[in-house]
Amino acid sequence: MTAHTDDGTPAVQSPAPLGDWQGLSTLSVWANTAAGGVPTMVTAVIGTVALIAAGQGAWALAPVPAGLALTALMTWIELVRLRATRYRVTSERMEMRSGILATAHRSIPRDRVRSVDVAAPIHARLFGLCAVTVGTGEAVGSGSDQLQLQFVTAEQGERLRRELLYRRPAASGGAAGATPEDRAGGAAEAGEEVEVELARLDPRWFAYAPATTATAGIGIGAIATLLGANAQSEGRMWLWLSERAGLPDSAEIASYVMARLLLVVPTFLAGLLLSGVVVLLAVAVETWWNYRLTRSADGTVRLRRGLLTSVSLSVEGRRLNGVVLHEPFVLRTAGGADVRAVATGLSAGDDRRTSAKSRLSPAMPRARALELSADLTRTRNSPLEVSLAAHPRAALRRRFTRAGIVTVLGAVAAAGAAWLHTLANEAFWEAVYRIEERLSPVPVAARSVAAAPLWVWAVAAVLLGAAALWYAVGSYRGLGHGLHPRYLVVRKGMASRDTVALERSAVIGWRITRSPLQRRAGLAHVSATTAAGEGVYTAADVGLGQGLAWAHEAVPGLLSPFLVRVGPSEEEPRPT
Amino acid sequence: MSTDTLRLRPPRNRVNGKAVLWWTANALLVVLPLTAALVVPALFWEEGRPWLLLAAAAIGLPGLAVTVVMPQWRYRVHRWEITDDAVYTSSGWLWQEWRVAPMSRIQTVDTKRGPVQRLFGLASVTVTTASAAGPIEIAGLDSALADATVERLTETTQATAGDAT
Question: How far apart are CA A505 and CA A377, in angstroms?
C-alpha cells in the first residue's frame, strides 16, 4: 500500500536538523533556468531562422546572443534569490527570510498551518524538486496567507508535508526540547501504516471530462487561434499550405462549401466538438492521472494527482469543514459530479481559484461522488443527500421576472437586427464577404446570414425567450436548504449547481441581506459566514421567516437573542 | 405552513445623530463635483449649454434626491448592539444587511476615522472575523463611545479562548 512513497521510508535521511536555517535546493537555479531558458532559446533560434529566411543576414546574428544573455541574467537573479532565501521549522514556528532589495521575514506559528501543498511542475520534477506552499487560513490581504518555498528537494518537501501537519493526538507540548525530526519520523511511520484510501482514479471517469458547456467553445478557441494566425498573415498561411499540399484555395473552398452547406456546416461543428473533446481529455489526464485521496491516522486528508505536474495537497482533518458537490449543467445531465473541499487554508486570492484549488476529485458518477462525500465527512449517509426544503413561490416569480426582462431585451435586439437586415444592400454584403474571406478560409458565416429569411430573427427571439424561461424554472428548482445533524446544507445554481454541506460548528456568524424587491416579496439571502472555503455560504431567496428558523436551528443560541415572533403564530407552535 | 413568523428585531442602539450630517456630506462630496463639472463649462460654452445643463440635471436631481433621502433612511436602519455573546448590527438603506458574529469568533477590533467623519467627531468600529464575508462595521458612532466600545470588545474577546476560526 505504500507503493507511492518511494521516499516514504522513515527519516534516515536528514542532512540538517529541521530546526536550523536552511536554503532552497541549489538545483532550483537549474530548474528555473531550464524553465525560462529553453523557451527563450527556442524563440531565439526561430527568430534567427526567420531573419535568415527574410534575407536580413546581419540581424540574424542578434537573437541567439541576446537569448543567451537574457538566460544568463535570469540565472544570476535566480542565484541571488536562492542565496537570499532561508527557512527553518522549529518546534513552534515556521519561518522564512527572503528578498534581495526589500528583505522579508515571515513567520507562521505551526498550529496555524492548515494545509500543505507540494507541487512538482515538470521542470522541477526533472531535477527531483518540488514547491511547497503552506496555507494558514489567515486571510489578510490578497493571497498573503501563504508561504511558498520554490524549490526544495522532493525529500525535503515530503518531510515538510508530514511534519508541518502532524499533530500529536494529545500532550504535544510535553517534550519541547525533543528534536522535531524524531517526532516527524515516528509520526510518518505510524501515519503511513494506517492510511485509509478514500478514492482512487478510475480511468472510466475520464469519459466525463468533455461534459462541459465549454467543449465546443474550446474547439472554437483552438480553431480560432489558427484562423487568427491565418488572418495575421493576410491569408498567406493558408495560401502557402494549399499550394504545398495541393489543397484548394479559399475561393474554391468557399464555392464548394456554399454548394454543400448542409453537409459542411454539421461536419464543421462536429470538428469543433471533437477538437474540444481532445483538448479537455488531455487536460483531465494531465490533471488527474495517479489520482488518490487518502486519510491518515491523525485525520489529515491527502490528495495526490497529476501526470506532468504532480500535486500533493494535505489538509488538516479538523480544518476540513465541509464538502461541495459541484454539478455544472452538462455534467449534471450526464449524471456526473465532482467533490470539493470546504476547508480553511485553501483560499487562493479569489473565489474561482479557491474553488479550483479545493477540488478533491475529478468528475465522477454522482453516486460515487456522494459516497466519497460521506467518507470525507465521516457520516454514514452523505449530508449532501438530506432532503432540502423548497424556497417560496416568490423566488420563482423573481426568476420569471428576470427571464421576462431577458426575453424583452432579446426581442428588441432581434427586431433591431431584422430591421438592419432589410436595410442592408448588395454593396454592404460584398464588403462583409471581403472582410470574412480575409479572416477565414471557410467564409460561410456572413453568406448564411445574408441568405437567411427574415423570420429567422423571430425564431431566434422566441428560442431565447424559451431558454430564459427554462433557465428560470431550473434555477428555482436548484434552490434548497436543509439540515443534517452535524451539517447545514444549501444548494443553488442552474448553469453550475453547487450543493454545500458546511459543518454547523464551523459557522462563525450570520449575514442576512435584503434588496428592496426582496423586502416586497418577503424574501432574503441568509448566509452563514465561516473561516473555511469561500467564507460565505448563502441560502438564496429564502423566505425570511423560513431562513431565520433554519439559521436558528442550525446554530442554536447565536441568532436567538435577536429573533422575535410576529403575526398569527399562535396556531403553529414550532418544535424548537 | 406559516413558518413565516420569525423576524429579526432591530438592534438596540441607534448610531449618533450627527451621522445624518456625515452621510449628507458624503453624498454632497460626490454629487456636487460631478454636477459642477458639467455646469461650469456650460457657463462658457454657449452652443453646448442646453446639452450640458440637461446632463447636469440628469445627474444633479437624482443626486439631490439621494442626498435628502438617503441619510434619513440610513439613520432609521443603521443600528447596533453588543451583548455578552455577540455583536449584532444592521445597515444599509435600499439594500439592507444584518450581521451577527459571536464574541468567540472575533479576531480584531479597530476604530476608523475618515477625514469627513472626524469633522463631525464621529468614528467607525470595525469588527473582523476569520470569514471572507468582510468585517462588520458600526459606522457613525460618537468618537469617545467608539473607543469605549473597542475597549470593551477587546476585553471580552481576549477573555474568550480559541483561535477564532
Answer: 13
For residue A112, give the chain B residue with the closest CA. Answer: B163
> Does one domain contain both A224 and A327?
no
Closest partner CB to B6 (pick from A111, A549, A558): A549
**The domain boundary residue, chosen from A248, A266, A287:** A287
| Domain assignment of residue B38, yes or no | yes
pLDDT digit string, tens, across residues A152-193: 888 888 888 888 877 654 433 333 333 444 444 444 444 445
Of A374, A387, A302, A384, nearest to A343 by C-alpha is A302
Number of domains in chain B: 2
Distance from CA of B160 to the nearest CA of A (A): 14
Least Cα separation, residue A519 to chain B (angstroms): 9
Q: Cα–Cα distance between A21 and A452 in angstroms, integer?
A: 73
For residue B2, which residues of chain A lie inside 8 Å, CB to CB?
545, 567-569, 572
Residues 6 or more apart whose Cβ sits within 8 Å of residue B147: B111, B123
Boundaries of domain holding B31: 14-75
Residue A379 lies in a domain: yes
B55-109 pLDDT tens trace: 999 999 999 999 999 999 999 999 999 998 899 999 999 999 999 999 888 888 8
- Tell me the residues of B at the A interface, defined by beta carbons under 8 Å apart: 2-9, 11, 81, 83, 85-86, 88, 92, 94-102, 105, 129-133, 136, 163-165
Q: Which residue has the cell 428555482?
A: A476
How far apart are the C-alpha atoms of B83 and A8, rounded to whole Å? 52
Whether B1 maps to a domain, the answer reads no
- Residues B152 and B93 grouped into a single domain: yes
B23 with B63, same domain?
A: yes
Reported ipTM: the value is 0.90
